Request: fold
Amino acid sequence: MRGVDTNIVLRIFDRTDARQSSAVDKLIAEAAGTKDLLLNPIVLSELAWTLKRTYKKSRSVIADYLDLLLQSPEFVVPFGAEAADAVRRYRQGPAEFADYFLAAINRSLGCDSTLTFDEDAAEAELFSLMKA
Reply:
């Protein structure tokens, strides 16, 4: 198994660099159905952030891209159920994908809630707003 960095995954969706896109296409073709590529939770979080900040993609487009990756047979996704839950919450709520993913992972690791100063994130039941 090989891990992939965010800049590799971005080339699945951003085809502006033909050389890099071709290399990624070849990588995915070689890994077809093998679960040979690891999508680290940090990569998924960076991807969502980059798609929003740099590429100005909407929440629904970002969620669609994340769903596509989570369902791809080429990728292993640690905390896959938590990632899918985070995508669902991201589609509906005001917080960032990384916030929902963090809280879902924390819950799976036994946390009752995740403390935050982020009022948007605190709207989800996975979070508790911490007062300063």
